[in-house]
Amino acid sequence: MRIYLCFLFIVICSRGFSQSQDDWYLFEDTATQQSYYRDARNVVKTRPLQLMAGGPRVFTAIVPVVESIADTGYKAFYLLRDGREVARDSLYFWDNMPDCERESKIRFRDPLKDKVGMLDDNGTVIIPAVYNDMTSFDNGLAWAIKGAERECWEGGKYDAAHPCEHWTWKGGTQVLLNDKNEVLAEFPSDMEFWKLDPYSLKAGEPPVDTSLWLSFEGKGGKLYLLRRREKDFERWLQGTFMPAAIDGRLKEYLATDVLWENGEDRLPMAPDTFMTKLGPVLAKKLSVLRRDRAGYDIIPDDLNPYIYDRPAYKKYFDNCGSFLRMKYPAYTVLVSHYTAEGKLLYQEHFGFLRTAQGYRLVYVSMV
Questions:
Q1: What CA–CA distance (Å, rounded) separates 29 from 153?
Q2: Structural contact between residues 204 and 17, judged by C-beta atoms closer than 8 angstroms
Q3: Are 178 and 186 in contact (CB under 8 A)?
Q4: Which of 114, 166, 299, 333 has minimal Cβ neighbours within 10 Å of its Cβ?
Q5: What is the fold of 231-365?
Q6: How far apart are CA 128 and CA 117, in angstroms?
Q7: Comparing C-alpha atoms, which of 113, 114, 116 is closest to residue 126?
Q8: Helix H segments across the chain?
Q9: Alpha carbon 166 to chain centroid, angstroms
Q10: Burial of 305 per CB tally in 10 Å (0-12, 13-18, 19+)
Q11: So where are the chain's domains?
């Protein structure tokens, strides 16, 4: 079974994080090569840290620290705001990056058992380390896998003494957990959980549309529903966005600013400017797409924190600068244009992001 934990990669960056008066912020002193966390009034709140590879830009309750120690290498732990160091040598890493706090919780990996669990924001174990792997929490829900084994992409069993560069989990059982450490349901190892919306969970309701909703029986016979994310977007695209754009109501579905890539530059545009410059052209293109109901592909996407670094987009990233993809799904509509002989001429891209107000157009690259 492939658990696509690439969706959990932590991107450490200096932009795109949310801010609060109660948060602390990373300050790196280049003169001393030491780092501190300071509050919004620039009062230093932590001891000097010898960070090896930076750290989360924002400190809300618990942060991972990988600290250089003279003559001994390094030590890794989670740091709490009261100065306590917990889960020594038990940080959760993926792609060489440590986990980041999400919904007041953070993952850890027990190095002796090679199993993953969850800490709360006080450093207390709330989910024991009994799973091969698990996701962060979204809307109080997390997916985990148990009874699986690592398998190299090139084939063959994973060898910890001589690890392959790329591997995935194979076999086992997936479980859906809540934040009370209750298993809501179990699934086969090939369950594609990332295609479901944890923010849509319904309990005890019969499915109305099984093409849009996944219905499953949980523990104790309880019925649950989760919405299929891509199907939800596709319906909105065809049933709401395209008709609105064609009828002259495109502005209703534009983001606060829309990024337009013209082949040379990426230019953020206010809705009124976008409508004046590109509105009629986009409406004409969408009219053809809606009529044909073909000619494009829908691709799950991310927001790049180095591109979407403007204030309006900060809320879509966590304290480490990682895109909150499960809460705010993003999609690219890719339109390919071919010659009569089937040779690719060019492609156009239309990027969408689900916001608190629903899906909005955030990016356009067209000719």
A1: 41
A2: no
A3: no
A4: 166
A5: Nuclear Transport Factor 2; Chain: A, (3.10.450)
A6: 5
A7: 116
A8: 229-236, 242-246, 271-292
A9: 20
A10: buried
A11: 5-191, 231-365
- Show the 3-state SS of 169-181: EECCEEEEEECCC
Alpha helices in 164-293 (DSSP H): 229-236, 242-246, 271-292
CA distance 303 to 315: 12
Residue 276 burial (10 A CB sphere; 0-12, 13-18, 19+): exposed
Tokens coding 207: 């499915």
Contact 92, 119 (CB under 8 A): no
Strand partners, 269: 258
- Bridge partners for 115 per DSSP: 110
Residues 6+ apart with CB under 8 A from 175: 131, 143, 144, 145, 146, 183, 184, 185, 186, 187
Reported as a single tens digit per residue, the pLDDT across 178-237 is 999 999 999 999 899 999 999 999 998 887 798 999 999 998 899 999 999 999 999 999
Rounded average pLDDT over 70-86: 90
The CA distance from 77 to 65, in Å, is 5
What percentage of the chain reaches a pLDDT higher than 90?
A: 66
Could you give the 3-state DSSP secondary structure of residue 215?
Answer: strand
Distance between CA atoms of 337 and 295, rounded to whole angstroms? 8
Residue 326: closest CA among 5, 7, 1, 12: 7
Query: Could you tell me which of 19, 20, 23, 24 has the C-alpha nearest to residue 35?
Result: 24
pLDDT digit string (tens) for 323-348? 999 999 999 999 988 888 989 988 99
Pairing of strands 24-29, 58-59: antiparallel
Residue 155: count other Cβ atoms within 10 Å of its Cβ. 7
